[in-house]
Known about the structure:
- This protein is mainly α.
- It is built from one helix and no strands.
Amino acid sequence: MGSPQISILQNASSSRL
Length: 17
């Protein structure tokens, strides 16, 4: 599924909201 970094970035973005 693409790169694992994308998941981390999405998780951090969701945490900020």
